[in-house]
Amino acid sequence: MQSTPPAWRTFRCEREYIVNTYLDIVFDLPLDQSFSYRCDAKGEAAPGKRVMAHFGRRELLGYIIGGSNTPPAFPQADKIKAVRRVVDKESVFDHAEIALAKWMASYYLCSQGEALSAMIPSGRRAGTNLSLEDDFDNEDNAGNRLELSAEQDEALLGIGAMADAVFAEKNTGQQKTNNLHIAYLYGITGSGKTEVFLRLAERMIQAGRSVIYLVPEISLTHQTAELIGRRFGAVAATLHSGMTGSERLSEWMRIRNGEVVIAAGPRSAVFAPLRNLGLIIIDEEHDGSYKSGNTPRYHARQIAMHRSSQEGALLLLGSATPSAEAWKLMEEGSIKRFSLNRRLSGGTMPAIVPVSLQKTSGCLSAELKEEIHQTRLMGRQTILFLNRRGFGYFYHCTACGFELTCKRCSVSLTYHKSKNKALCHYCGYETRPPLVCPECGSLDAGFTGFGTEFIEEEVRNTFPELRIQRADADTTGRKGSLREILKRFKAGDIDLLMGTQMVAKGLNFPGVRLVGVVFADTGLHLPDFRAAERTFSLIVQVAGRAGRFFPDGKVIVQTLRPYDPAINRACALDIEGFYRNELNQRSVLNFPPYSRLIRLVVRSRQETKANKAASQLASLAGTMLPSGAELLGPAECPISIQNGNHRRQLILRGTSINALQQLTRNMQQQYEKETGVYVETDVDPVQLL
Ligand code: ADP
Ligand code: ZN
Ligand code: ZN
């Protein structure tokens, strides 16, 4: 890639350096308004710069979003304070970002200051284990170009043509033609989606347009970002959470100054201040990390949809396991689907075998033990996938497989030992756990669950001769240690790698023959309507780690529910069947994508306050509920106490997101908050824990 200045620089918009007497400033606070300040330093203030200013008794970082030379009506001119200082020499935000923040504030019901500060989050850690200079995967094709397969070629041409049409539409000012502006690259794991993304990016840049390339926030996918760095050189920028605040800001300014035409990174890279945007790519579109866990709880896909339609860019999503939302839109034809069906590195999809744990004492079935043993004899390697720390326990009958779920919400009931009650965390329904199975009358029924420590111990005891390594958040917290582990695994110094999410995605090792999913059901028992979708996608993704280079991959999926449709369809790789069934379920139960949700979480150190606030909000909602909307709850959150805070939730459900947003805004205005009570608003929630 050459680093000659791209053509689009010439029509980049001029920055307006307005010097105003009175500045409108917003802060990273949940206050839905701007504040007037003066700036006494001549010529320094401009929209998009940051300032330090007194706010109450504190001094805070604020953002200039506008200004005027005539004094505001309120407060009186002589009461207006001056900012302490202007932080930036150059504006950090352009009008486009300020406008985007305004839209975000209205969509996610946060303040504009909160939205702006989410755009360049400050780095949490200095230095990082995320920058894997030595790539585990693509070292062989970093420089030389791969010959595209016919499928890849077809996708490249089709998607490229769509991008051109979307762009042309914007430039000729013809809004509202029938051109779709979202495409989906749907391809099995290992089918070469990355190469198609990279070629499209190159094509865009050659045509003078810029590109945003989003990857999930998992350590290993940073290899994609590195790959982009190598492929595009100086005109690429990476923004990731491993960077310090100042590293991030300096990358941001390079983008803002037009030195960069492709920006890559996780979630927040969707805000990259590129101009003349032609393409936004979201790799692994289904991934949960695209949704922010803090205010504003934005989803990068939603921001990307807004930006791409505003800026005339094509939005390209990609995954082997699309989100149910995206699948529905593909079926309806409002997202255009391009498919890749073949693996390209000499592998085939592995055989995936579901194995029942019903009659196994402990957590390793005879089948899994035998395969681990065989794999070792062949001199190959095993990955054992443990679900993220098992959450709670679920009611299960060993005799007939019965499980206790809420009649109304069809999610698992959670056992609360202290109260001896099983309860639904959506609607608040509670019941005493039955002593005998309600289905078959067996006494062999009750609440069960596995912990990861237990599993690790059993694996080590069963295979003392194997070199076993565990990789999860606890063992890889230290800088560089995950990378170290993966290096050793690649070199063959580890026989069996055991871990949580970290081993589920992105790994591409020729030595791996066997993948074992120790307990596929864990996720199914979470009180969440997306439980089946997550379980399905996880099995398919984990299975994708086997058989990438040789056609002898094997996957064993252990489960207490061998007949569960999500597990069965994942094992059969019956992707279409799964979505058909899942969408049907969602439709019957009126959950997204057939409805929209806003979730309000109330928290307080004092349980009585939390309860009171939740019921106040519920009765407010009750009086204002628009037609087509309903209130679920209030109920305890599944995680009912977190860091000493009692958590209660209300879920607003309806057909129109606008109506729900308006309702929530009204509730926010009318609700009189007590001290020590906090209310979090989550528009389009993804996690309901
Ligand atoms: P996906 O993202 O679809 O899971 P990847 O992009 O990781 O798949 O590609 C899987 C493997 O296929 C990689 O090792 C990649 O180098 C290789 N690959 C991609 N395209 C080609 C091609 N046209 N010819 C040969 N190998 C390819
Ligand atoms: Zn039973
Ligand atoms: Zn319920």
How does this structure look, described?
This protein has 689 residues and is of the alpha/beta class. It has 16 helices and 27 strands. It has a 7-stranded parallel β-sheet with strand order 8-9-7-10-11-6-12, with helices on both faces. Strands 13-23-22-14-21-20 form a 6-stranded parallel β-sheet, sandwiched between helices. Strands 2-1-4-3-5 form a 5-stranded antiparallel β-sheet. A hairpin with a 6-residue loop joins strand 17 (421-423) and strand 18. Helix 1 packs across helix 2 (112-119) and helix 3 (150-171) runs parallel beside helix 4 (193-206). The two termini are 45 Å apart. 48% of the residues are buried. One zinc ion (ZN) binds at residues 397, 399-400, 402, 437, 439-440, 442, 445.
List keywords for this structure.
689 residues, alpha/beta, seven-stranded parallel beta sheet, 16 helices, 27 strands, 29% helix, disordered N terminus, binds adenosine-5'-diphosphate, binds zinc ion
